[in-house]
Amino acid sequence: MEDHHKPSAPGRVVAGRHFEYKWIALSVTTIGALMAAIDSTIVVLALPDMMVKLHSDLVVMVWVIMGYILVSTVFLLTFGRAADILGRVRMYNAGFLVFTIGSALCGISQGATQLIIFRLVQGAGAALMLVNGPAIITEAFPARQRGRALGINGVAWALGSVVGPLLGGFILAAADWRWIFYINVPIGLVGTIWGYRVLHELSTPKKEERFDVVGAATFSLGLLALLIGLTRGIETGWTSLPIIGLFLFCAITVVFFLWWEKRAASPVLDLSLFDSRVYNSAVISSMLQALSMFAVNFLIIFYLQGVRGYDPLTAALLLIPLPLVSSIVGPLSGYASDHIGARLPTTIGLILQAAALALFINQLSPDTSYAVIATGLGLMGLGGGMFWAPNTSSALGSAPVARLGIASAALGTLRQTGMVTSFALALAVAAGSLPKQVVMDLFVGTNVALGSEPMQAFIVGIKSAFRVSIVLCLAAAAFSMVRGKGEARHPHQPDRATGE
């Protein structure tokens, strides 16, 4: 496949020696990915303490988590398009600064409402980093190294998602809940200053293009309605009038959005991206993989807490095999995809994740040995590590440089939407036999031990959710298999950052 990117600026001199720009860019974006991932989960164990000290209730405090996730998903497409016009580095650095300011404001919050609002600010900063980080890496690295670089960046995200609850637990054991936000401030300041000093644009932003305000607003409102409907449906019921209304509003806005984008002079979503079979297959595979696998972590944590009786911190620690294996395999699979293409590693990875789910369906019971659970988690980590970096490299490698921001945004938006949908779908299937308050207590990390009868019902529900996940995972593997060979990397393409 033709590499759309041109050689650009040389490396920098660091500590008296030549150090290539691409590795500097990777280090900055990896710190951003790690921070954003940690803060998507770090508050889980702190919610009960926050609820007491801020004199709030569980229904309100759940939005400390969900508000961050919603904002960091809804604005991906808007920020991705803005980055193509204004510059990816500029938007990424702004994201680091906004995230850091949001963290400081969260720490000084005097009430639940303030905390939720400031978490929205954090989520906006995270969206700016998440959408532009992969695009900056894709532009900085030559095709022969892109998968490996994205694999390293993916390790940070995988580790951050699991490290979040662990770090939160350790901070709470030694200090007040406010320190789970204050800890971001010095790291964020270093990252912000470092990014402004060392990152630079490798392509010319399309400043002459107009921003599609109508398209961005329509898409954001429709996606927001969908995500709120999915998350609130767990509590209020899927057939309630407000939830049906939200889903109907989402459907109407999607139809209008597609109609508008086909006619807009400078659309927020360039639909021509989807003319590429490589990009289409990568995006659909990513969404289905997230829809299949994201909720599995939560269901295993619920099992470890509600069925096995572990406290939240111990349950989070027992998940370590998943991110550990993923962090080792991610860069290796990215390196392999640079030479053989993405189709084989991504497809095998998805099949391995389906095999892990099959193992859980066959073996999970109230007294399953941890060796079996660790094996399943390790298989999930192996499959995830083989999938993420090659798939992202395949998708962004097939996009023209002028549309890297929006290509990354569309990929991230569908993946994040799949994650939220996965959580709602899995809870609807797995926890349907449990009282809503028990489900909510499990969701926020409260130590809940189920009785014998609900325990058996919950295990049956988990296995039903895993069966649905297997079907979705195999569907993702099918799309991955037919992506074509166009994404295979030629080992001698030039380095855009150095011209070598």
Report Rg: 22 Å
Low-confidence stretches: 1-18, 486-500
Number of domains: 1
CATH class: Mainly Alpha
Gist?
This protein is an all-alpha fold and 500 residues long.
Structural account:
The protein has 500 residues and is mainly α. It has one domain: Growth Hormone, Chain: A. It contains 19 helices and two strands. It has helices at 21-41, 47-53, 58-74, 76-86, 88-107, 112-140, 143-174, 179-182, 184-198, 213-236, 241-261, 277-307, 312-317, 321-340, 343-363, 370-397, 404-430, 436-443, 452-481, and strands at residues 12-14, 17-19. The chain has a two-stranded antiparallel ribbon with strand order 1-2. Helix 14 packs parallel to helix 16. The longest helix has 32 residues, at 143-174.
Helix/strand layout:
Layout: E1 12-14, E2 17-19, H1 21-41, H2 47-53, H3 58-74, H4 76-86, H5 88-107, H6 112-140, H7 143-174, H8 179-182, H9 184-198, H10 213-236, H11 241-261, H12 277-307, H13 312-317, H14 321-340, H15 343-363, H16 370-397, H17 404-430, H18 436-443, H19 452-481
Which features characterize this protein?
single chain; mainly alpha; Growth Hormone, Chain: A; 2 strands; 1% strand; disordered N terminus; disordered C terminus
